[in-house]
Amino acid sequence: MKKITVAIAGLGSRGLETYARCLEKYPDRVELVAIADIRPDRVAVAAERYHIAPDMCFDSVESMLKVPRLADVMFICTPDHLHYQPAIGALNLGYHLLLEKPAARSVAECRHIAELAQEKGLHVIVCHVLRYTVFFQTLKQLIAEGKVGRIMNVEGIERVAYWHQAHSFVRGNWHVAADTTPMILAKCCHDMDMLLWLTDKTCERVTSFGHLSHFTADNAPAGAPERCSADCPAADTCVYNAQRYYMDMFRRHGDSWPVNVVAPEPTEEKILAALAAGKNEAGCDYGRCVYRMNNDVVDHQVLNLQLADGVTVAFTMTAFTATGGRVMRICGTAGEIFADMERNIIRVMEFGREPVEIDVRKLTSDFSGHGGGDARMIADFLDLLEDKPMNPALTTIARSVESHYVALAAEESRLNGGQVVVIDEFAKA
Ligand SMILES: NC(=O)c1ccc[n+]([C@@H]2O[C@H](COP(=O)([O-])OP(=O)(O)OC[C@H]3O[C@@H](n4cnc5c(N)ncnc54)[C@H](O)[C@@H]3O)[C@@H](O)[C@H]2O)c1
């Protein structure tokens, strides 16, 4: 069989360190043939690692899109604000797409991608990686088996974790909404997708409140300098001390995320140099005091959703958790399911029966990359491109954009004092 050929735009944490690595598992089925990034160091690392010919290395996604189609599929793994235009350009050239989330930053852009994909007959898979995890597939299966009966309400919490908030949403790529997306879209379009998928419903109305309350100048320790350093009076006690945090992560977990975001192919010297260097080209500053950034995204937000058929959802996204992970409680006419993704436990409580606890760690050993979801999504996508039967978990662009509409509607509500946003009207705007 002819190998599927892939071009990757954006050679960062997702493009190079996640998806290119996933492709390595299928040397007989797929080949990475073209790459693009504005950072020459990333292009050089990728070209050497995957033996990419010089004429297939590009200095931006824009220049890669100026030439005729180079591969069957393009993986768009550029920053959030660079998904929409490249997606439209690539669809017009005839590429199938693996499109990082968020697909786009506005309702109109999302709709345009979905309509163009349909018009061209091309696949666009948005990277809602959680769908492909054994954890959520087990949960979906339990619901399909009727363990909770008819779903009435769902409680969900996205436990961002204080350190992940600091890394990504205070110092990192997603700290200014206008440069990227509102945090509820960046972090929780996955959760919105999951809620719609698990309940098998559409969303009708949304209301939301949320604030940036803690990671502000008012909360800086007395005498704290602009950048983390030994001179800071809180250096020994502050959990956000950058040198201590990143060096500790590096010593414990090696060159994995999030340290490889601070310094690609990290060593202790490279990490310390990156922390001292100030803002990088993306405007991130991993060595700066978390109370002295220009961040404007929320650190906690709540949403109420009304889904079709009277199903209700209460959802919280919060930085203020000790560890990360998603927790969900699904309540129905015949029972209740409590699902804790961090502990990998699903507790099924059918009414009138003894509860049953499922330890998802006993169902799979692969929890790397979003609980194993990254790798399984790539495998399912390759099946789809080879015309094998489509895994029902594989989401279409038409369904993916619904999760984006809900997240964008939540932001609209939050910015307007919690007013109710009607999704049908909002999605037409
Ligand atoms: N599906 C998920 O669960 C998940 C998880 C994390 C991140 N993401 C998304 O993946 C995307 C990439 O995130 P990341 O963590 O890899 O970020 P990153 O900063 O590590 O990588 C982005 C890369 O794009 C490059 N780039 C910037 N402008 C470019 C251009 N014009 N042409 C080509 N390359 C360009 C950057 O130099 C960088 O190497 C983001 O949109 C993010 O929201 C998705």
Number of helices: 15
Assign an overall shape.
Answer: globular
CATH superfamily of the largest domain: Dihydrodipicolinate Reductase, domain 2
Number of strands: 15
Measured as a percent range, the helix fraction is 25-40%
Report the top-level CATH class of the largest domain: Alpha Beta
Order of helices and strands: EHEHEHEHEHEHEHHEHHHEEEEEEHHHEH
Radius of gyration: 22 Å
CATH topology of the largest domain: Dihydrodipicolinate Reductase, domain 2
Main sheet?
A: 9 strands, mixed
Overall mean pLDDT stands at 94
Question: How many individual domains?
Answer: 3
Span between termini: 45 Å
Label the CATH architecture of the largest domain.
2-Layer Sandwich
Ligands, ions, cofactors = nicotinamide-adenine-dinucleotide
